[in-house]
Write a structure and sequence with these properties.
This protein has 157 residues and is mostly helical. The protein has a single domain (6-156), classed as Ferritin (Up-down Bundle). It is built from six helices and no strands. Helix 1 packs antiparallel against helix 2 (34-60).
């Protein structure tokens, strides 16, 4: 079984956060309610902060350089994988076009946060136990988003 390094997982996290930020910014353009729009913009800003946090985490971890046919090949693959699993551009565009109300926007956002949490929980199986603390930091950040969205949805119903 391939053992990934935490630095690889952070590369995924960075992409997930980039795509999450895009989603929240796009949805905030659609939503009319000022309070909800404010929370969505807050979540987008949080995604940007998390992206930076994860980038900082990568810089503090020993770099992992997998064998590649050309520079960047492996991480390009990892990023493409994440783009097709969590917060994909195609999925975002399709979902955004189908969102008709705040509740449907919240449902989609909640599901994406849950998918992210599940992804990181599964990923822990592929890193050494000494790296679980770092992965747990990512999971904690995603749980905060999930809880925020659940509370926001309650205010919409």
């Amino acid at each position: 079984m391939k053992i990934f390094q935490a630095s690889e997982i952070f590369q995924f996290a960075i992409r997930i956060e980039e795509n999450g930020e895009k989603f929240y910014r796009e949805i905030s353009k659609i939503i009319k309610d000022k309070e909800i729009k404010s929370v969505l913009n807050y979540l987008a800003d949080e995604e940007a902060k998390h992206r930076k946090l994860f980038g900082d985490m990568v810089s503090k971890i020993e770099k992992y350089e997998p064998p590649e046919s050309y520079p960047g090949e492996y991480f390009a693959y990892l990023r493409a994988y994440v783009d097709n699993i969590i917060f994909t551009n195609e999925m975002l565009n399709k979902e955004i076009s189908q969102i008709k109300d705040t509740v449907s926007a919240m449902n989609f956002a909640i599901q994406m946060e849950l998918d992210s949490i599940l992804y990181y929980e599964e990923v822990k199986k592929f890193v050494s136990e000494s790296q679980h603390i770092s992965i747990n930091k990512i999971i904690d950040e995603e749980r905060k988003h999930f809880l925020k969205l659940v509370e926001l949805k309650k205010s919409c119903v």
